[in-house]
Write a structure and sequence with these properties.
Elements: H1 2-10, H2 17-28, E1 35-41, E2 47-57, H3 67-77, E3 81-87, H4 97-112, E4 116-123, E5 128-130
Parallel strand pairs: 3-4
Antiparallel strand pairs: 1-2, 1-3, 4-5
Length: 137
């Protein structure tokens, strides 16, 4: 995981869906509990130093996320762009209603701070769902 994170940090841009999908699958795909992570990027889509943070860790089927906490961290790090990712431990990467509501709340909070949300990914061991690619951002 450290190798993949260092490789991602060295990439010129994390705007590539393939890079993002592989990066998050390596980090979250095999976990037994649901977690929520945020990647903090600069305006060139480069990962900031210490730019990935696990904000919430939950139970087998739920991690609680507070938009205020996410935005406080984004401001502290000076992020221009955010990528959210969390895993579904049951293998089904379809977004739940809670996932959709959370994503809308995070986008609204970020937009008031002039921070762009690039994507929200739902990860399983073998699959990735992208809110961006599905037109849900």
């Amino acid at each position: 995981n450290l190798y993949l994170q260092q490789k991602a940090e060295a990439e010129t841009s994390l705007a590539s869906p393939e890079i993002l999908h592989n990066f998050w699958r390596a980090r979250l795909g095999s976990l037994k509990d649901e977690v929520f992570e945020v990647a903090y990027l600069d305006s060139g889509y480069k990962l900031l130093r210490d730019g990935v943070e696990r904000l919430e860790e939950g139970t087998v089927d739920r991690a609680t996320v507070y938009p205020r906490r996410v935005m406080e961290a984004a401001l502290r790090k000076g992020a221009a762009i955010l990528v959210f990712a969390h895993n579904h431990t049951n293998g089904n990467v379809s977004p739940s209603e809670q996932d959709k509501v959370l994503t809308k709340a995070l986008i609204l909070a970020a937009s008031t701070l002039h921070i762009k949300v690039y994507d929200h990914l739902i990860i399983s061991k073998e699959h990735v769902f992208s809110f961006r690619e599905e037109g849900l951002l």
